[in-house]
Amino acid sequence: MSPNKLVSWNVNGLRAVLKKGFEDFLSQCDAEVVCLQETKISDELTPGFQFAGYPHTYWNCAEKKGYSGTAILSKIKPISVRHGIGLPQHDREGRVITAEFADYFLVTVYTPNAQNHDENKRPRRLDYRTGEWDVDFLHYVCELEKRKPVIFCGDLNVAHREIDLANPKSNRKNAGFTDEEREGFDNILAAGFIDSFRHLHPDETDAYSWWSYRAAARKRNIGWRIDYFCVSKILSSRIKQTKIHSEILGSDHCPIRLTLSP
Q1: Contact by Cβ (8 Å): 104, 2
Q2: Residues with Cβ < 8 Å from 81, sequence gap 6 or more?
Q3: Catalytic residue among 58, 110, 140, 208
Q4: 13-28: average pLDDT
């Protein structure tokens, strides 16, 4: 059995979002699987988190305390679960979990942020992000796809097109909208994966999943769409609904949803 109702959310700290209605959201969202990013908890803390209705919970925590981290909460027990992508240079930050279901692999991913500019006016971690991570992660999901279709979701830390952020011109060389990062997303599409939201809403504007905490950006909807469900092309006919839950608060990101037809 494979889940058809999926939600992904960068919670920007699980303990923080628990104080802001996270469990109410879980009880109301009608998702069979919820994928989380940026949980910011360490391994020894995970036994303390139990969520009603989601008996199968999997964690991948960063070695650095209070940093990064991913989780999968599922009503359906996966066939198998894998942590990381099998490369030590990437796997110390807890950024990937893969759950295998009957019809597909589901991957939750928290892509590294290219970070602020260095003394050369270039995002500090851009070379690692685009030259190493993007290449190796795409290779990983393409290898999975040789076995069965893949859905990967999460905070990919890139707005792909100008339509995907409120102020493209002023962010032209900033982390999340550099040519290199956008090319990395081009490569995802070229490999045959589909941006499920744009598949159903090719021209929708003002659809964002992240807002800065500064300058009342969320209230003014000055945001970026950097959270995605990317789907193997063979599953494209099953994409029934995609939704950005901008009304759900608690993090600087909002949850996103993918519904598949059976």
Answers
A1: yes
A2: 58, 72, 97, 98, 99, 100
A3: 110
A4: 96
Q: How far apart are CA 18 and CA 15, in angstroms?
A: 5
110 catalytic residue (yes or no) = yes
The pLDDT-based confidence of 123 (bands split at 50, 70, 90) is: confident
Query: Which residues, including other chains, have CB under 8 Å from residue 18's CB and lie 6 or more apart?
Result: none
Q: Per the structure block, which two tokens stand in for 58?
A: 């999997």
Nearest to 160, CA basis, from 92, 227, 241, 93: 227
Cβ contact 152:139 at 8 Å: no
**Pick from 169, 170, 98, 93: nearest CA to 125:** 93
Quote the CA–CA distance of 177 and 161 in Å, as a whole number: 8
Taking residue 216's Cβ as centre, other Cβ atoms within 10 Å add up to 11
Helix H segments across the chain?
Answer: 14-18, 22-28, 88-91, 126-128, 134-145, 179-190, 196-200
Rounded to two decimals, the pTM is: 0.96
Catalytic residue among 155, 164, 195, 227: 155
Has residue 118 got a pLDDT over 90? no
User: Domains, the chain, ranges and CATH?
Assistant: 5-260 (3.60.10.10)
Query: Is residue 103 flagged as an active site residue?
Result: no
Pairing state between β 5-10 and 33-37: parallel
Q: Which two tokens mark 42?
A: 């360490």
Residues 6+ apart with CB under 8 A from 77: 55, 56
Structural contact between residues 81 and 8, judged by C-beta atoms closer than 8 angstroms: no
**CA–CA separation, 74 vs 33, rounded Å?**
4
- Is there a contact between 177 and 158 (Cβ–Cβ < 8 Å)? yes
Q: Residue 203 pLDDT > 80, yes or no? A: yes
Cα-based distances in Å from 85 to 71, 132, 192, 226, 250: 15, 13, 20, 21, 29
